[in-house]
Amino acid sequence: MSDQAMSAPRQAPVSSTKAPWSLSFLSGPLFGRTLALKLGENWVGSGAQCDVIVPDRDIAPRQLRLSVGQIAVSIQNVGGGEATLNGAALDATRRALRHGDVVEIGPLKLGIVPAAEPRTVAAPDAPSPSRGRLARWAAAPWAAWMASRRFVIGLGVLWGVLVLAGGAYLAIGATDPFWFQASATERMREVRQALHDYPELNVKPTSTGFLVSGYVNALSDRDRVQRIAQTFPQTTVGDVYVIDELLGSARLYFSDTPLTVTYGGHGTLLIGGSGGRSLQQRVANFAKDARPALQVVDRVVYAGAPQTAPKQAPPTAGDVPDIVGVYGDGLGTRFIETSDGARYFEGSRLPGGLEVRQIGNDRVIFARGPDRFFMDVSSAAVHEFIPPPPG
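Predicted structure:
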């Protein structure tokens, strides 16, 4: 058997059939789920032989055929019935499917989103016939002398690299002794100055150095932040979120609703527009799932909600006193204690007009009209209290 025939089965398990795309359900029985696609044909239908099975009798056993590649995805409606792609009729003709497109089949809406591309491991080299010649060459008497000479040369090169690295380290310390003589506050100020182009980034001290986190506009900005942080010793990049990606995901989530999604700065996402009461729980679910990346502000005018005139400004952190403790008896009675010694139970109002809507173990929800304001509470501030014995 030839070497080519022997190497073929070794390469088969290396290639991955997982595609860089996932199928996202925007409505229907699988609403909110995201399923990975494979390279090649992916069938969507109600039949058991489909790659994606949808439990809906209105959908054919093989309704949609998705042809998935590394770069593009196409879709065909081969199961009959009415289907639309971004509002246009979809038939058996192959149509391109892009991120952000919405496919609708009766009550079912779906789209595609990018998925993390798996890394492939390089296949091991096939055994070469020349290895036998190399073994005979290594067994020659003069091979040991050549090997020892190369070892000495390699050792000398290694020492040279170490000397150059040490000299560069000493040169940096002599010409710019900032990191050797400055205080932690001065070092942090220097890092912040280097990142002045990104006002929504925070630099916080840690036990080992500094941590950069926050928000940038695009992926290229995050890459640049990574390069800047690498120029400072003991400085690492933590959770740096990309605003374009967050907005894209939020708008896709609300694509089948009349609601609008805008970015309010510093990790705040504003949900606006008007709609039915059924959307309120959906907005609340999104706000819960978006944490800790986003703080969601609900500005939706729901049908049947009482109109407030004039509309007050949304709550801010300055309206809420510092919370020093959260107390509960384990039976549903909870209250918060602020830095001024006042205590507020669920349903009570603060002097600024905010209502204590809900007290949880990790955060407190305040409300002012249709607006919601979330404040995190550290675990150290949560306590249990023992009510006094009856009279």
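Summary: The chain has a mean pLDDT of 77.
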